[in-house]
UniProtKB/TrEMBL annotation:
Belongs to the WhiB family. [4Fe-4S] cluster binds at residues 13, 38, 41, 47. InterPro entries: 4FE4S_WBL (IPR034768), Whib (IPR003482). The gene is whiB. Acts as a transcriptional regulator. Probably redox-responsive. The apo- but not holo-form probably binds DNA. It is found in: Cytoplasm. This is Transcriptional regulator WhiB. Binds 1 [4Fe-4S] cluster per subunit. Following nitrosylation of the [4Fe-4S] cluster binds 1 [4Fe-8(NO)] cluster per subunit. The lineage of its organism: Bacteria, Bacillati, Actinomycetota, Actinomycetes, Mycobacteriales. It comes from the Bacteria.
Amino acid sequence: MSTLTIPRIELPCQSTENDADLWFADQPSLLEEAKTLCRECPLQSACLEAALEREEPWGVWGGEILDRGVIIAKKRPRGRPPKRAADAR
C-alpha cells in the first residue's frame, strides 16, 4: 500500500511570515500590502468568490477590500477627511 503525498500550497494569508491582522488592518497602506500579497495566491479568485457569497463584513479577500460584503476600491483612513481650499468659502 502506497501513501499519497499531497503538496502543500503556500497561501500568503496563512504564511507564518505575514501577520494575520494585515488582512483586517485599519490603515489603508497595510490593506494595499495585503492586496499585493493576494495577487500571488493560487486561490485568489476562489477566495474572492466565496467571500462575496458569504458577504464578508470587512477585510481583504481574494485581492480586494470588502466593506459590508461589497468590494471597495480603496479604504479611507480613520477620521475626518481634510478640508479642501474650495470648501473654505
